[in-house]
Amino acid sequence: MIFTDLRFLVLFAACWGCFFTLPRSWRPSVLAFWGAVFYLTYAGTFLAAVLVLVGLVHSSGRRPLAWAAGTTTIALLAYFKLTLRASPLPATDTGPAAILIPLGFSYLAFELLHVVIERHRGRIQVLRLADLLAFAFFAPARIAGPIKRLPEFTAAVQAATLSGANVYAGVLRVLIGLAKKLLVADVLALTVAESSYVSTTRHAWTIVLAFSLQIYFDFSAYSDIAIGFARLMGIELPENFRWAYLASNIRDFWNRWHITLSHWVRDYVFMPTASALFQTRLRRWPPAIAAISYLLAFLIVGAWHGATGAFLVWGLYHGILLALFHFVRLKTPARIADHPLYRSRVAKGLAVAVTFACVTLGWVPFMLPLKEAQRLLGIMFGASR
Amino acid sequence: MRTRFTRRLAFAVLWLAVFDQFVPRLLRRVERERYEAGSVFRFENSDLFALGPLVSYLREHPQGNRRRVVFLGNSIIFGYGLAAAEAIPAQFQEQQPGTRVFNAAFNSAGLGSSYLIAKAIVEAVDGLVVLIGSPGTAHDMLPSLIPVEESDRRAFALRPPDRIERRLQSLAGVWRLYAYRYRLQAALFSTSTRQYVYLHKRDIVRRLVTPFTSPPPPPPTPWRPSDDRAVLRAPRSASPLDAEGRRQLRQNHQLLCQFADLARSHRKPAVFVQVVDVSVELSDSEAADFNAMFAPFAETVNIGLPPSLRIDTMHLTPQGAHAVAVALSRYDSEREIGRR
Lengths: 385, 340
What we know:
The structure holds two protein chains of two kinds.
Chain A: H1 6-21, H2 27-43, H3 47-58, H4 63-84, H5 105-121, H6 129-137, H7 139-142, H8 150-159, H9 164-192, H10 201-232, H11 250-254, H12 259-278, H13 286-305, H14 309-331, H15 334-337, H16 345-367, H17 370-380
Helix pairs in contact in A: 1-2, 2-6, 3-6, 4-5, 9-10, 10-16, 10-17, 12-13, 13-14, 14-16, 16-17
Chain B: H1 2-36, H2 51-60, E1 67-72, H3 75-78, H4 88-95, E2 99-103, H5 111-121, E3 127-131, H6 142-145, H7 150-155, H8 163-171, H9 176-179, H10 181-189, H11 193-199, H12 201-209, E4 231-233, H13 243-252, H14 254-265, E5 270-275, H15 284-294, E6 298-304, H16 318-335
Parallel strand pairs in B: 1-2, 1-3, 3-5, 5-6
Antiparallel strand pairs in B: 4-6
Helix pairs in contact in B: 1-10, 2-10, 4-16, 5-14, 13-14
């Protein structure tokens, strides 16, 4: 894990020192410089490519250049996803040689696309190169998110103050993240590794349950550590997880799981798709518009995790669940929805359990290639051994 | 508010600084208990986490309180599918109570790995038992776990350790809890904390949900030694090997001869074990030539086992491991593998 690498800690300490000792107006440049050094250390071969991409995004004020920046970012993301088939989980093997894909490129690509789109929409009026570089290279969030938004990040950098409360909260958050990763997720990973010789139904369910917990603890740990390191600098990053497995429905789940990604997809895929579809004849069937928008949005979420059939199936599965939930909610009569039993704790508990079961089942194609996932599902439901 | 946070941070730092003074003493105690006592040692779940700490301990303490024999090899020696106490090395230790046996084998280990591990600890052990017949490869992680010479690193095409990170870690060694973190875990659990939690998860959960007074779980089902025996034979050559024969043998089995040279140069007896039909590197005549060439410091033995002592085409049942351990123990009593 890069976060526990002493090299990362030394770089971070140097960045932290400069950040608070140099004038406030230099802060973006400080973050950009040390971020670039961090990138050079861990993914040096890709630094030039990322710099060119950031330069392209910076010059995307005019429409043709915005298109060029956007398509180049998407093309590069697709290229890396298709050729390298990176794992959705951050690499556990540290060291420069272990990284073959530009570090955290999936996150970087979505952040840069956000800048291009918001600039095109006129919500980002002034774009300073130093701010953009600081945003793109901010080391704590470069490994596994959260996916930041430029205006909020720039404001947070300027407002950052050195305080005991920030340092304490940051250290605590980093320690919580490390404990989640090293003591829980990594132990669960050993049970998940048993999937290669799974034979009984009970064993298969245990492994899937272990993966469901592992991916939550692993991913949320990386977010915790990133948020903690940023907090040490007084910078508040957006939260990425909020007790996701206590969600009472699938939409609630996506408001608690990888929040920054689901918000990105909502703002830049779901809403524009739905708006565009409302301009067509489909406007007479809003549920169909919602279904199509959900399916498209979650196919993109699946592809973002990895360009494999398994991830696409996982994305499609969640798209279908969301569309179904949307439809059921629309069609639930008010007398049922307002019934005390419907709103009781028992019903809520049941809803949490059903949502967890649906999400956990969905992890099967996420954790294994399609053929192996099929085999595991077969064993889980006693169909084949 | 600010003072409270600063006070908490200061307290945490102070507590760590005080605790740090006791770390070396704690480490000495738990390492002595782990590596010198009679408990079974192996890389649990075939995880190499404890290799670095074991090698560090042995290099720092070249003299143990008993004769030390290290078993090296792949899953056959590791004891795939067997409890640690059922594997060949543990059963050998049972046969030879005056010997401290280390099972330093792991699944899919190549002969290169065994060679590099042996090279790192040869000064601190009295004898080596090495399973041969596996490919001459070495595990890619070894240079970051144990001392590996540059020439060996190149010969086995291993990735060099991350020098900058290593240097930084040595600088951070002033914080002893950090410097000894792997050694402490290995000495306390014989593996990493995560492997320990994984391997004992049921016990841990049981302890959490039931009172401590509840009876311990029943011991694993006992097994009885089989009537089937392992046959051990050391091929012998009637005539001494000529120069051409030596050259030929070295050319065909370069790594094995290098291994034998290592044992001979350090005057540490090594037994190279071949399991007939399973893990064979030398033909009978080659083994005889090899034995003639490297006697008395290195010898190849062939062990034959009936199929009833195997769980599959390769791995042994507890009875099979017992039979091999008994055969090796008898051989040891005659030939004295590193007897002091």
